[in-house]
Amino acid sequence: MSMEGLSSFQNLQALSALLSTQDEDDEYNFKNMTSSAVMGPGDIGLPSPAANKSAYTKKDSKAIWSEEEVTEGSQFDDLTDTRPKPEYDILLKQNVGTEDVFLGMSRKDPSSMCCDSMLVKIKLPDTKATDVVLDVKEKFLDLRTPNFKLGLHLPHPVHSQEGKAQFYSERQELEVTLPMNRLMDQINLQR
């Protein structure tokens, strides 16, 4: 063995001893740190609202979560119910007059932002109108029949109390028209 090879081997051993000693010191220092001194990747950036525990207030001391934290419509999910989901379409509608089409006097355009209501068409073959049970919330539509079950999260909030439903027995189709409820509609859709 040459002198140079021995020297590099000794250097590697010395480096290994240096690094292993440093690791033991780090572990010792880490154990003696307080919990507020330990930082991790989650501490980078602005604190999240969920981390701010003072913002969360429980109404019921025994509650696990508040009503705002539960997804709307989750109470209708039933994994043991094997009824199929019917075919459906969601269409957005606008109320348009001649001043809109020919003169362009209103600020409406063909985009979905100018839509007034939502139309949900649900195909229900072999179903009578008396068999349909419909419940509409602000962001969820629940439909149940003996043959079908539909739990539909709506793409936009709606005025659930002002909606209208009509069953067409010749087409075996239910049409539910729901006026949309968006924050800035009073400003954006002024007439």
TrEMBL record:
GO terms for cellular component: cytoplasm. Residues 85-180 form the PIH1D1/2/3 CS-like domain. The lineage of its organism: Eukaryota, Metazoa, Chordata, Craniata, Vertebrata. This is PIH1D1/2/3 CS-like domain-containing protein. GO terms for molecular function: dynein intermediate chain binding; protein-folding chaperone binding. InterPro entries: DNAAF6 (IPR026697), PIH1D1/2/3_CS-like (IPR041442). Coiled coil: none annotated. One of its GO terms (biological process) is flagellated sperm motility. Belongs to the PIH1 family. Signal peptide: none annotated. Transmembrane segments: none annotated.
